[in-house]
């Protein structure tokens, strides 16, 4: 904890926008120049982008927005596990499901093994984004969870809108976009039975301030919240946990019917020509939104066909 506190203090001192010399950092922290250099090396290895100029010192290249742990835990009425570094917030929750209650969350500043859909790596540079997992128990089993990723997308879109972020849209089944580029992803993992007790881990990653090096490794257009009204990260996490609790309770009571209209309002591809990639096949048509099971509705030759489950990717058709 002491070592992480030193690193956080260094980041705070470098966040002024001005260069700070190694000597000044060492003096203010009461440590050696070598210790300062070692801490900075570790931060860079975790994805923090730091400018280093001989004769001037160090400066952050990209903002680092850290959680205020005390304010986080004060704002959330469930248990909250907070880490500077962890393999995966979803992984942590999955190993502790027997001890958790609905609404408990795990939040980290860095993930060494962050995951996206289909096992893809999720870029997780330290302090740059929000890495968030929430636990929820469904008494009626996995069958009741149909369409859950759409509900989570609606929750995240509402929180962003409430915080003044415009240009947010949803892409079936689990992506959140900003001005046509991917801003956030959702990964839901389950343990349990189809028709009895089911435990859900809802993982959410939101790009706040993407370092250049991390962004260069991403193979699709991405967006972050720099320049569009960067939210206070602690406030963002608290609002998201509260909104998810509210929406998941509503989902348990009323199912996806309660969210279809919210989804349609934010659906990026509604009424547009799209392609559905299903293994080695492509289905083309006009996106007509979703049904009350969370299936994508595709109009083909005047008929509306529903598609759900399996390895399906949705793409906007080339004009």
Automatic annotation (TrEMBL):
**Which keywords belong to this entry?**
ATP-binding, Biotin, DNA-binding, Ligase, Nucleotide-binding, Repressor, Transcription, Transcription regulation
SUPFAM superfamilies the UniProt entry points to:
C-terminal domain of transcriptional repressors, Class II aaRS and biotin synthetases, Winged helix' DNA-binding domain
Q: Per the record, what are the reactions this protein catalyses?
A: biotin + L-lysyl-[protein] + ATP = N(6)-biotinyl-L-lysyl-[protein] + AMP + diphosphate + H(+)
Tell me yes or no: is ATP-binding among this UniProt entry's keywords: yes
* Domain called BPL/LPL catalytic: residue spans: 73-252
Top-level EC class, please?
ligase
Q: Which residues cross the membrane?
A: none
| MF annotations from Gene Ontology | biotin--[biotin carboxyl-carrier protein] ligase activity
Q: In which residues is biotin bound?
A: 88-90, 111, 115-117, 182
Q: Keyword GTP-binding on this protein?
A: no
> Recorded E.C. number(s)?
6.3.4.15
Matches recorded under NCBIfam families: birA_ligase, PRK11886.1-2, PRK11886.1-5
Tell me its family.
Belongs to the biotin--protein ligase family.
Supply the PANTHER family for this chain. BIOTIN PROTEIN LIGASE (PTHR12835), BIOTIN--PROTEIN LIGASE (PTHR12835:SF5)
HAMAP family to which the protein is assigned, alphabetical: Bifunct_BirA
Q: Under what name is this protein listed?
A: Bifunctional ligase/repressor BirA
Q: What gene does this protein come from?
A: birA
